[in-house]
Amino acid sequence: MSIHQNQPRPTAQPRCALRATVCGTLVYLLAPMSAWAENQAERLELDRVDVVGNAPLPGVGVPLDQVPANVRAFSGRAMRQQGSLTVGEFLDANLGAVTSNDTVGNPFQADLQFRGFTASPLLGTPQGISVFLDGVRVNEPFGDIVNWDLIPPNAIANINLLPGSNPLFGLNTLGGALNIHTKSGDTNPGTSISVGGGSWGRKTLQFETGGKGEDTDYFVAGNLFHERGWRVSSQSDVRQLFSKFGWQDERNNLDLSLMLANNRMNGVQSLPTEMQDVPSSAYSIPDSIRDELAMVTINGSHFLSDTRLVSGNLYLRRLRQLGFNSNLNNNYPGDSQPSGSGSAACAGVTAPSACDPYARNVLTTTSTNGWGGSSQMTFTDDVAGRKNQLTLGASLDVGRTSFNSDSQVAFLDGIRTVSAQPVMTPQTVRLSADNTALGLYATDTLSFTDKLHLSVSGRFDITKVKLRGTSADITDNTLGVGDLDGDHRYSRFNPAIGLNWNPSPALNFYASYNEGMRAPSPVELACADPTHPCLLPNAFGSDPDLKKVVARTLEAGVRGKLGDAHWNWGVFRTQSTDDILFVASSTSGAGYFQNVGRTLRQGMEMELDGKVGSLGYTVHYAWVDARFQTPFNSESSSNSSAAPDGTIQVARGSHIPGVPAQTMKVRLDWQATTQWRIGANLVLAASQFARGDENNQDVNGKIAGYAVAHLDAEYQFSPQLRFTAKVVNLLNRRYATFGQLGVNEFTGPGRSFSSDPTSWNVNDQFRSPAAPRAAWVGLMYQFK
């Protein structure tokens, strides 16, 4: 962690517009640092931050010992040293309560899980973590997903992960909020360029340049990334550009940033048991997604007086996503049972046809225009002679999404699905979704004494979702033609309260209670009718209302300092009401979203970091117990314990799939010489249940736990030239981070359809194999 306390005061002090006592506090918290932001509103653009942003917008911040939660902070420098491609990859390697589900075999498309809650780039995954970039919420309006490939790693100054259901961060903050701040030329001057390459045909080019004048600054960072991938048809091409231009004086700060991305990523589906002996293989191909982003953000702040700061932002964002998914059906040569036998239009039709295809290719286009802004006012005036910090704020986020989907009849060429000629489209979706989210929030931290601090917060959210469109499927009456029109409104006031007691500078006790909410996304609302299931991401059905999810978190712990070591021990308990889950339907490949009652995620976290001589170390351990608390029935026909109608009974206390109960992360950094630095990460995770095994009774059992080690190193040839190296999965371990139950269509010899009807519809546990050992090297040149 990069949060430190009790640092000595520097001899040179920065200019400060706050009154002397506040200025002295900031100097105390921020020292020592090699680069100072002349305007204190810029300090979150520094590589190390010793105050915590307690609200979405950058502001004065709160000292760590006044935050009633186990906040984690990491620097962009640490990401660069470890060669992490995404924020999710970095956190998975360093933070105990974080795990990653590599569902599609692409390094830019993995799920991030924190305390059993998810931030995922995949539509249909229940989302429970809010993500902010320079104060702008980047959960996509259509499905609340997070596209990790859009955030350039070399533009990141620091990362704050705030746990719990913190209401100040608004929608989706059920298990935590991830707050990412970017660099500026004022705090990161200089120019560097780096090139790299190695395993799997990886080629990289990164550059960044920054500078400042008397009252202006600029920063530009760019990335070019190409890799063919280690599995069949898993190529990635990522192109990112970030620029920021700023103006500041002692009382004002104004930044204009532009972020562009044009990325294409191929994914690979998980493999059934009999194919896992060749983990680099693919089940069916192709599967790809293309992201095209343009985003403009204006952030500004102004000190109205020595104790009052007003800040705000405005943003415009356009994202276009093109998706292609290959899908196999349980239809075989000689099969006389059309899959669309329930439809009058398909009566008597045999394969292959639009009614009974062997495979389908699904093409989707999602275009989202988003705009909005936030405003925030911070007061640091004393109250009744006691130190106090009050923040009032408001936010507005608007999203307009157009979603089109076409499911095309296809035939198989080996494992490749090829659209038939002429193209037949048995399923179509034409949907527009308008999201409007308004939030009003306030937080106050009152210091009764220098050792006792009370925090009280609250936020009122109003969310409106308007859907217009249709969904059609000629192959099955149960899918039929659906009217997707609907208007939905959700609102709630979410409170929080916390207490910090610091009996000494080296010891801090904290406790808190907070509540957060998640409104159902347009994706979930458009697929919530069990009588009209959908085939995500292929089609939608209809839009019955879903209830909002409400999370309530209790957290307590103690942290402190022992010599040069910092440590933390804490416990947490988050109960979610009316949680939303995608439930399989008896219609093959289809399902729907439903509220499944209460779920519980509780656990314990222990952390230790410090330095012994030239060796730095961090040890993070987490126990996460994630369970369903309300019994419910689900349809999971691939589960061996399913009833003849395909249903399973999920009992109270069943474990939520995809969440390892125990994780441990160990990081070692050894400054071997003034020129050599060597680092190592050890990642351990316990076993987990596969999706579809919500009742924990499938005969295939759990996905095994794993232990994997990674290495990274730097050698400084000169002040300008640096050599870098990274090795992942050093011991070349075979393991999987994700699993789901499904039907293996390839049951004949040579991965073909079997002519024996008794071998059809073979239920299996599919797993996504993790990457084998690989190595990359690079050179970075820092211009004078």
UniProtKB/TrEMBL annotation:
Highest rank taxon of the organism: Bacteria
The protein's predominant localisation is: membrane
Signal peptide positions on this chain: 1-37
Q: Which PROSITE patterns match?
A: TONB_DEPENDENT_REC_3
Q: How does it sit in the membrane?
A: Multi-pass membrane protein
What positions does the domain TonB-dependent receptor plug occupy?
64-177
Chain ranges of the TonB-dependent receptor-like beta-barrel domain: 237-730
- What stretches pass through the bilayer? none
- Print the keywords alphabetically: Cell outer membrane, Membrane, Receptor, Signal, TonB box, Transmembrane, Transmembrane beta strand, Transport
Supply the InterPro entries for this chain.
Beta-barrel_TonB, Beta-barrel_TonB_sf, Plug_dom, Plug_dom_sf, TonB-dep_rcpt-like
Q: What Pfam families does the record tag this protein with?
A: Plug, TonB_dep_Rec_b-barrel
Location of the protein in the cell: Cell outer membrane
* SUPFAM superfamilies with a match to the protein in the record: Porins (SSF56935)
Q: Would you identify the family this protein belongs to, as annotated?
A: Belongs to the TonB-dependent receptor family.
Protein name stated in the entry = TonB-dependent receptor
Q: Which organism is it from?
A: Ramlibacter aquaticus
